C-alpha cells in the first residue's frame, strides 16, 4: 500500500466528519456556520447552504476514502487512519463552533424552563 493512499484516507475522514454538523443542521432547518457566511466560518449560513455544503463534503470524503487505493473496512490501518482524520477535525471543530454555540463551557447554559418563576 502506498503512503499516498493513507494520506487520502486521512483527508477523507476529515471531509466525512466535517459533513456531519453541516448536513444535520441543514436537514433540521437550522442555520449554521459555514465558509460561505460573512464573516467566513463565523456567520450563519442558511439551512439550504449547509445541506449543500455537507453533501459536497460527503462526496469528497467518499472519493478520497473509497475511490483511492483499495480501502478495506477489515484493515485496521485503513480504518485507523480514516478515523484519526475524522477525530482530529471533529475536535478542532468542537472548539471552533463551541465558541459560537456555548459548547466550550463545562457548565451548560442556564435554560429558563418557566417553572417556579412568578
Topology overview:
Layout: H1 3-27, E1 32-33, E2 44-45, H2 47-66, H3 76-101
Antiparallel strand pairs: 1-2
Helix pairs in contact: 1-2, 1-3
Provide a concise account of the structure shown.
With 118 residues, this protein is mainly alpha-helical.
Note down, in words, how this protein is organized:
With 118 residues, the chain is mostly helical. It has helices spanning 3-27, 47-66, 76-101, and strands at residues 32-33, 44-45. The protein has one domain (3-101). The protein is built from three helices and two strands, in the order αββαα. The radius of gyration is 18 Å and the shape is globular. The termini are far apart.
The gyration radius over C-alpha positions equals 18 Å
C-alpha termini separation: 68 Å
How many separate domains make up the residues? 1
Structural class assignment:
mainly alpha
What is the chain-wise order of helices and strands? Answer: HEEHH
**Mean pLDDT over all positions:** 89
Per the principal axes of the C-alpha atoms, what is the gross shape?
Answer: globular
Strand content: under 5%
DSSP helix count? 3
Task: Kindly state the number of beta strands.
Answer: 2
Strands ordered across the widest β-sheet: 1-2
| Low-pLDDT runs | none
What characterizes the major β-sheet?
A: 2 strands, antiparallel
Helix proportion range: 55-70%
